[in-house]
Amino acid sequence: MKPEIKIPQATAKRLPLYYRFLQNFANEGKKRVSSQELSEAMKIDSATIRRDFSYFGALGKKGYGYDVNYLLEFFRRTLNQDEATNVALIGVGNLGNALLKYNFHKNQNTKIVVAFDTKAPDEGTTINDIPVFRPERLEEKFKEYQAELAILTVSARSAQDVTDRLVAMGAKGILNFTPVRLSVPDSMKLMNIDLSLELQALIYLIRNNQE
């Protein structure tokens, strides 16, 4: 993605979704698709899709729609699908173990290459073929395995301390699964995923709809 393009975070989060559905259309042999067809498939308002696409210039033609292969190639380049991104997982509890087992198998350009956990032995160990070390070796192994991003599934009390270390190391971004609202500099990208809040919001929507 070109640095001069300012993309809202909500739009940025939808880009991988567009890429996935365009892959589905291409696999079905479709050559072109309208914003309405994308809307029906993705359950996203067509006006939102057109607005998202408008940030990148003229991606389609009026009366024709969008060329599927062109869009697929465009989003592949935009999302850097040809460049591998190494990820470090910090915290191998229940959620961390699940992430190690999954390890983004459907995203060939993203992979957890190293993990850290307080229960790891001094000499390190492996879980699902991923090396796991004690947090004391974070700086050393993060660099050795050429990790760029970190996934945090640590305890709330240690989340900011680990974040400060990642900032000092020059990590580019954090996917935060902890309930803590982390403090990071503008140079670091941060995304928060709070499963309990999402579940509470879903319960509210269900009950509110019933009423």
UniProtKB/TrEMBL annotation:
SMART domains given in the database record: CoA_binding
Residues of the DNA-binding region: 17-56
Superkingdom in the source lineage: Bacteria
GO cellular component: cytoplasm
Compartment list: Cytoplasm
Keywords: Cytoplasm, DNA-binding, NAD, Repressor, Transcription, Transcription regulation
GO BP annotation list: negative regulation of DNA-templated transcription; response to redox state
Gene3D superfamilies: NAD(P)-binding Rossmann-like Domain, Winged helix-like DNA-binding domain superfamily/Winged helix DNA-binding domain
Record's function text: Modulates transcription in response to changes in cellular NADH/NAD(+) redox state.
Quaternary structure and interacting proteins, as annotated: Homodimer.
Name listed for the protein in its UniProt record: Redox-sensing transcriptional repressor Rex
Organism, as annotated: Lysinibacillus composti
Taxonomic lineage of the native organism: Bacteria, Bacillati, Bacillota, Bacilli, Bacillales
Gene encoding the protein: rex
